Structures are given as C-alpha cells and as structure tokens.
What does this fold into?
Amino acid sequence: QVQLVESGGGLVLPGGSLRLSCAASGSIFNIDHMAWYRQAPGKQREYVAAISPAGTTNYADSVKGRFAISTDNAKNTVWLHMNSLNPEDTAVYYCMILMYDPNNIPSDYWGQGTQVTVSP
It folds into this structure.
C-alpha cells in the first residue's frame, strides 16, 4: 500500500503565494511520475502539473509561469509552488503518484486533498 499526505493549503489573498507538499510512503517502487490535480466546486478534477524522477516537468496552460512543481526523490516528496494566485485557483488540490509494478502494471495512488482558497 501507498499513502500520500498533502499539506500546505489555506486561505490566501489574490496575488499571494502558497506551497503545497505531498509526502509518499509505503511500498514505493518504479515511479513514473508524481502530479498535482485540482477540483473546484461543481467542476471536474483537472490536471495541474507533473514531474518525473528525472525532473522533467509539465504544466497545464492555466498555471504556466505561475506554478512550479519540484521533487525530492530520496524523500518521495513533491511540492507545488503557487504564485500570483487568483480566485480561479480556488479548489481542493490532490497529489497523485503513478508507479509500475514488477510486472509492468501501472497503479495510481491519490492523497486526501488539501483546500486552497483565494479570496480578498
């Protein structure tokens, strides 16, 4: 089993910054990538950013230039640095890890989510 624990959410003013953290523990092996998703009230969950163990990153267009994803492979931890936040960034943010088992079968695991609210 794999557990993902997120932290760092909260209430922030428009234009402000937050840093989310996600620590993975348990039977972790052959990580393909770690990622952040978010879900706003009444909307579907959407992709935010991803990072591979080699450090290759990818971002949704809506957060490019404002958010940065980083990782510490030794600690199986991933961060999401969020700058220039606006009310449209308000959502529950979820961490995800995708791994391949020895039979090359992929499995994804999700955290419980952390609330980010951007409001005056």
In short: The two ends are 40 Å apart (CA to CA). The first strand starts at residue 2 and ends at 7. Residues 36 and 95 are 5 Å apart (CA to CA).
